[in-house]
Design goal:
This protein is of the alpha+beta class. 36% of the residues lie in helices and 33% in strands. The protein contains three helices and four strands; from the N terminus they run βαββααβ. The longest helix is centred in the N-terminal third of the chain and has 18 residues.
């Protein structure tokens, strides 16, 4: 089974960046510390786009990502930021150069 990755693009309410950024950093730290299947949780801030944050996350497999979605820290994060997000786009990926698949 190959690794699984997602990219999540968030568009935020005017003035919501700082709170969302703090919350997503906490969620990422908890994901890496508490989820054995979470390999990477990068928080990307596009240059010159004040109300946008992009996440790149990689997991052992899709099951590990599903476990992430059920975690307490993810649910708490979602509750705390729900009013700050105006749009969200999630794209799922299979990691095609996964050395485990060679």
């Amino acid at each position: 089974m190959s690794r699984f990755a997602i990219i999540v693009e968030f568009e935020l309410l005017e003035g919501g960046f700082d709170i969302f950024h703090q919350e997503v950093l906490k969620n990422g730290e908890a994901s890496l510390a508490e989820e054995a299947g979470c390999q990477c949780f990068d928080v990307l801030v596009p240059s010159k786009q004040e109300n946008r944050i992009v996440l790149y996350e990689a997991y052992d497999d899709e099951a590990a990502f599903q476990e992430h979605l059920q975690s307490r820290h993810f649910k708490d994060f979602s509750d705390r930021v729900s009013g700050l997000v105006t749009d969200r786009k999630l794209t799922r990926f299979r990691v095609s150069n996964d050395p485990k698949q060679r």
